[in-house]
Specification:
Blueprint lengths: L7 E4 L2 E4 L10 H5 L3 E2 L2 E6 L2 E4 L2 H14 L8 H14 L5 E9 L11 E8 L10 E9 L16 H13 L4 E5 L5 E3 L4 E6 L2 E4 L9 H12 L4 E3 L4 H5 L3 E6 L3 E8 L2 E2 L8 H13 L10
Parallel strand pairs: 8-9, 8-15, 12-13
Antiparallel strand pairs: 1-2, 1-7, 3-6, 4-5, 4-6, 6-7, 9-10, 11-12, 11-14, 14-15, 15-16
Bound molecules: 4'-deoxy-4'-aminopyridoxal-5'-phosphate (PMP).
4'-deoxy-4'-aminopyridoxal-5'-phosphate (PMP) binds next to helix 5 and strand 14.
Length: about 300
């Protein structure tokens, strides 16, 4: 699904076949989760294929790398150029793009000098599917922000996400919703969370969550549409009374949520602010500026 015999990836300055790529079994990233990555989408627009918010994603990759003491050997501009080349190499128009920065052989707990850069891409539908989700409050909390840089996209953090999603699926739900260390709602395992009440939107503040590029985009779209969004701490009981809710993420885009812990939301999705914003988001990703579209 992610690659076939023809797929080309970028690996450390070279274009190689995905099936011929290999990594060191003594990699510090494989053993300890000390790597950083991004999840980016490109869309087929009227002006050609365009990567959505490419600068924001690659700036976040640099931010994450800095936090993990990883020296990234490419600038944001270079990474953007490489990514457009990757799409051309694979004839991809709509694509999910996965840059991964991983370390060489290093069994110590100190930063590695050997830094590897891999970028691959594949066609990927909406990550959480097309249906409205029934989600549950996870028994797993997001990592304590004093134990790691929770706002950075670090490979090892995703063990927490895997545990939460697996628990939710095992209990018959579609996805999990994680609390922070103070039992406020934080975010999903791979997406930010918004809920609607009385014509306004609410979402968790930064501090215990990933600073999602899609979350920021929703703020911008909401402003254009005169929708009030408030960042605040809230408990799951407040969400039980909500009119609507949704996840946001590059892979998930805007994904409707039907219920939390079997408490259904009041409105039909079509009547929610989330639905309005979902349409606005789809329009926005398909209409980037001319300068963005290089293909
Ligand atoms: N939170 C987590 C934990 C994520 O993994 C993601 C996906 N990157 C998001 C939120 C959404 O971030 P973005 O909108 O930048 O994709």
């Amino acid at each position: 699904m992610y690659y076939n015999n023809e797929t080309i990836i970028f690996l450390n300055g070279k274009w190689i076949k995905a099936k011929e790529g290999s990594a060191n079994l003594y990699s510090q990233t494989l053993h300890y989760g000390a790597g950083v990555f991004e999840g980016i989408r490109a869309y087929k627009t009227e002006n050609g294929t365009a990567i959505f918010k490419e600068k924001e994603h690659y700036n976040r990759l640099h931010y994450s790398a800095n936090k993990m003491h990883i020296k990234l050997p490419y600038s944001t501009e270079e990474l953007i150029e490489i990514t457009y080349q990757l799409l051309r190499e694979n004839n991809l128009e709509d694509a999910y793009i996965r840059p991964l920065i991983y370390m060489g052989a290093n069994m110590t707990l100190q930063p590695s000098d050997e830094v590897h850069v891999m970028i691959c891409a594949w066609e990927w539908g909406k990550y959480l599917g097309e249906n409205q989700l029934d989600i549950m409050t996870s028994s797993f909390q997001r990592p304590n922000p004093k134990s790691c840089f929770v706002e950075a996209k670090i490979t090892g953090h995703y063990t927490n996400s895997i545990l939460a999603t697996t628990e939710a699926k095992q209990k018959g739900f579609d996805e999990a919703l994680l609390l922070d260390m103070n039992e406020n709602i934080a975010e999903g395992p791979g997406a930010n969370f918004f809920f609607e009440k009385n014509g306004e939107l609410f979402t968790s503040p930064l501090g215990n969550i990933l600073n999602g590029v899609t979350r920021q985009t929703i703020f911008e779209l909401a402003e254009e549409l005169n929708i009030k969004v408030t960042e605040k701490f809230f408990k799951k009981e407040e969400v039980y009374q909500a009119d609507g809710a949704f996840f946001t993420g590059t892979a998930a885009e805007v994904t409707p949520i039907k219920s939390l812990d079997n408490h259904s939301f009041q409105l039909n999705w079509k009547d929610t602010l989330g639905c309005k914003l979902s349409e606005a988001y789809q329009n926005l990703v398909l209409q980037p500026s001319l300068t963005n579209a290089l293909l």
